[in-house]
From TrEMBL:
Signal peptide: none
Pfam families for this protein: FdhD-NarQ
Gene3D superfamilies: 3.10.20.10, Cytidine Deaminase, domain 2
Keywords, ordered alphabetically: Cytoplasm, Molybdenum cofactor biosynthesis
Gene from which the chain derives: fdhD
Main location: cytoplasm
Organism field: Streptomyces lomondensis
Regions annotated as coiled coil: none
Name of the protein in question: Sulfur carrier protein FdhD
Cellular location(s): Cytoplasm
Active site feature: C115
Length: 282
């Protein structure tokens, strides 16, 4: 099975002098996701938590909504000419009563960090297919101080990043700031899928009282994944995209960007942020 890291020989140059040494790199390999035996998508990922990644991807596609929808996930042998198992192909078997949207079987897409639909049609599609509208979730009230503490907690949990410097991370926190789960991957969308997939496998969907924190920017795709998992708050240490902001406003998702130190920007859903009362003006 693929490893999380690999070693490569590099020429290290410091102050004009060079020396040869091994370096630790994050592994990147393709994962083909099949749905009930039919090819669906290929994503470049860091090996590990592959079953959770596949399950989380299918939550964001609207195929899976709970533990009972999932019958089994297996690695597929015979993916190479000699019939060996590369552990790079998984087949997700759904329960017999799960309705499979026609579009999913026709996509056969190569997914990247920039994949996802574009424009108003995609906003409408997420809003109408979301199983757990985040606007209707029980009220979650978060202080800026709690949000500001989360990036350091995420960074402290990034074990593979410390060895490679080449991974994105995503984490789930409780509304009290407790770290519930963290995943790392070369693709931030994969890290989120691994979180959501593990939650589905554990029977924890919808994630209606948690905060999703991502280590980079907040794209439309990440906002989509949060909404489809019932997550009410998405926070990112970098910028959101315009379509992510539009989706957050459309669905009631609280979207926080540029979460660095004690500063942050709230782009949508500010009603979940508990600000201190402004000092009286003299």
């Amino acid at each position: 099975m693929g490893r999380v890291t690999e070693r490569r020989k590099v020429l290290r140059i410091r102050d004009g002098a060079g020396s040869s040494r091994p370096d630790t790199l994050v592994a990147e390999e393709p994962l083909e996701i099949r749905l009930n035996g039919k090819p669906l998508a290929i994503t470049m990922r860091t090996p590990g938590d592959d079953f959770a990644l596949a399950a989380g991807f299918l939550v964001s596609e609207g195929v899976l909504g709970g533990q009972r929808d999932l019958r089994n996930i297996v690695y597929c042998a015979g993916a190479t000419a000699d019939g060996s198992n590369t552990y790079n192909v998984v087949d997700v078997q759904t329960a017999p009563d799960v309705v499979i949207p026609d579009i999913t079987l026709e996509r056969n897409v190569y997914t990247t960090s920039s994949c996802g639909l574009c424009g108003k049609a995609s906003l409408d599609a997420v809003r109408t297919t979301a199983r757990w509208p985040v606007a209707d979730t029980p009220p979650v009230r978060l202080t800026p101080e709690l949000l500001a503490s989360l990036p350091d907690r995420l960074r402290a949990a990034q074990r593979v990043f410390d060895r490679t410097g080449g991974l994105h991370a995503a984490a789930l926190f409780s509304e009290e700031g407790e770290l519930l789960d963290v995943r790392e991957d070369v693709g931030r969308h994969n890290a989120v899928d691994k979180l959501v997939g593990r939650a589905l496998q554990n029977g924890e969907l919808p994630l209606s009282r948690v905060i999703l924190l991502v280590s980079g920017r907040a794209s439309f795709e990440l906002a989509q994944k949060a909404v489809m998992a019932g997550i009410p708050v998405l926070a990112a240490v970098s910028a959101p995209s315009s379509l992510a902001v539009d989706l957050a406003a459309e669905t009631g998702l609280t979207l926080v960007g540029f979460l660095r130190g004690s500063s942050m920007n709230v782009y949508a859903g500010e009603d979940r942020i508990a600000l201190r009362a402004a000092a009286a003006q003299g």
